[in-house]
Amino acid sequence: MASKIFTSLVRMIFLGLLFIFLFYPDKFHIKFDYPGFPQSDSWYVRLAKFSFWFLLIIEILRIFYYGVVKSKAKGLIANIVTIVIPLVVTLIFLEIIFMYIPQSHEGVLSKASQIWWEKYWNPVNTLGYHDKEIKQESTKKNVLVIGDSFAAGHGLKDVNERFSNMLEAKLGPDKYSVYNLGMSGADTRDEAKRLAEFPVKPDIIILEYFPNDIEKVGREKGLTLSGAEPYADLTGPMATIVKRFYLPNFIYWQLPHTGFSTFEKFVQTAYTDSTVLNAHLRDLSKMTEYRDSTNAKMYAVFIPFLFQIEKSAGYTKPVEDYLRSKGVTVVGINDGITKIPEKERVVGKNDGHGSATLNALIADRLYNAMK
């Protein structure tokens, strides 16, 4: 029995080297190269981690069997081991299970959101947009939807629940091609550039606008965000455990935390600071200038902070007024949002992006305006 325990211990030493390689590669300047790195573990990396945990369980149980069960060991240590081993094995099994549980999140902060992104963020076309491939079809009118993660459909498991896809279905895919140029983290300056570079010239442009679209220009003018950064409330070994392992990471993101970077104060300041606002309007003017160069019709949908609708509308009113002065049709949705229960406005507990219900509202309002 002693020899069997010894061989298991030797194998566990080799598993320890594999553990370092899989879970702490950065500490030894080891780099993986696969799509999504370092944002998320690939399917193959998770398979390797699954194999590691499975082999570790076998060796733990083998040592327990020969060291305690078969030897009929008694005493305090044997009792402690008998309690601890099932607990450790259970935690490892839970870690394996949570390696495959997706949950959408603001951005891609949590490990569960990384799994969600890999599983649901498709299709992605050759230009990198979460959309179908581009086809040059002269018989159809082209509608370009530009915006940030709300336009891209962050948090929606089915791309057909997104307002651009719903709009195309309403307009008739035999008559209209609706292309979605939404990109997570985009701001107005980036959107204007991507709109002008898109290979399809529009007959109609739809701008999805969110209050944080002013963020980058605000930062350039010296404004800063307040609030704690993700994981800033963790120190010591707990920080690395939560960041690197799936089960503790999932638990961490279900708990309340001291406010992560909040846009409320930032946005309020940005829209009332004439230096910031004027710079932002200059970025918007590039979009309207492009519209004029293509003779396209332009619509704008303002998505507010979904739980602070009135405040949000007040912040962005100068931008709405500016776009109206440039001949852009602003399509209102706030009255419709207030009729949607708060929990049904967003995709989930940890993700404040628009739900399928909200996207359906936007598609209906746009369709009615375009009729």
Question: What does this protein structure show overall?
Answer:
The protein is 54% helix and 9% strand. Helix 1 packs antiparallel against helix 2. The chain has helices at residues 2-23, 43-69, 76-98, 111-120, 149-152, 163-171, 188-197, 215-220, 236-244, 246-254, 264-272, 274-294, 309-325, 334-337, 342-345, 356-370, and strands at residues 141-146, 176-180, 204-209, 297-302, 329-331, 346-348, 351-354. The chain is an alpha/beta fold. The termini are far apart. It contains 16 helices and seven strands. The protein folds into two domains: 2-100; 115-225 and 261-370, Rossmann fold (3-Layer(aba) Sandwich), CATH 3.40.50. The strands form two sheets. The chain has a five-stranded parallel β-sheet, sandwiched between helices. It has a two-stranded antiparallel sheet with strand order 6-7. Helix 13 (309-325) links the parallel strand 4 (297-302) and strand 5.
Any key phrases for this structure?
2 domains; alpha/beta; 16 helices; single chain; two-stranded antiparallel sheet; 371 residues
Any chance you could write out the topology, listing elements then pairs?
Layout lengths: L1 H22 L19 H27 L6 H23 L12 H10 L20 E6 L2 H4 L10 H9 L4 E5 L7 H10 L6 E6 L5 H6 L15 H9 L1 H9 L9 H9 L1 H21 L2 E6 L6 H17 L3 E3 L2 H4 L4 H4 E3 L2 E4 L1 H15 L1
Parallel strand pairs: 1-2, 1-3, 3-4, 4-5
Antiparallel strand pairs: 6-7
Strand content: 5-15%
Large-scale geometry? elongated
Low-confidence stretches: none
User: Could you describe the largest sheet, including whether it forms a barrel?
Assistant: 5 strands, parallel
**Structural class estimated from helices and strands:** alpha/beta
**Within the largest sheet, what's the order of strands?**
2-1-3-4-5
The topology string of helices and strands comes to HHHHEHHEHEHHHHHEHEHHEEH
